[in-house]
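Posting for a labmate who doesn't have an account.
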Amino acid sequence: MNSQESFVRYVNEFKRPDSRIFADAEKFRMGATFVSPSADAYWGGRDFDAEYSCAVSRKWQLWTRMDQAPMTPQEFAGFLLDNREDIVSPCGSLVWDIAKRMETRQAGDCFSVFRQEDGSFRLGYREGGMGWSSMDVPGGLVLRIAPFADGTSLDVPAWMRCCLGQDGLRLDYKLDRPLEKIDRAFRIVLETVEKETSLKAFWISGKTSAKCP
């Protein structure tokens, strides 16, 4: 099945009273058995009667791929502007203002970074022989993205980081426990499938199975 909806529809069409759903949390997939309720019968290469794999969304792949990847101020500004619709905090206008100010910084600018008590950064910069200017960079972002292509969007905090080294100023972000977030998203998908098919799901781990809590 290529979608959650088609998987549910197919299962509801062919399920029996003893049908079961088995979920693989490591591969974000689930399979339904119509003929046999035994999970053991479905190890060793035997196929499920219906199977659905959750496709990781493009947005989730993007934000996790760039997680903790140092960027220049110009690169970071471009990344924020390109993906600002995923950011719910701080507000869009503030993100736009910060990104635009970063975008104008030049490679030769002098920088200073000061961490403030609230976790934000005071970013100082000087262009050529001109005086110092500064801007505040928030200590974190809150993203709202769906880990799976047809799944529920979740709020994902991300901590902003600034580092001043020999190569100049670099900025990045660190997602807060992304593995836990995608696991939660899979549980939400599974709970929805259970509700819409009226079938109980079982976790598959190694060669054993257990009821999903």
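Reply:
Got it, the structure tokens are right above this. The chain has two domains: 4-55+181-211, 58-178.
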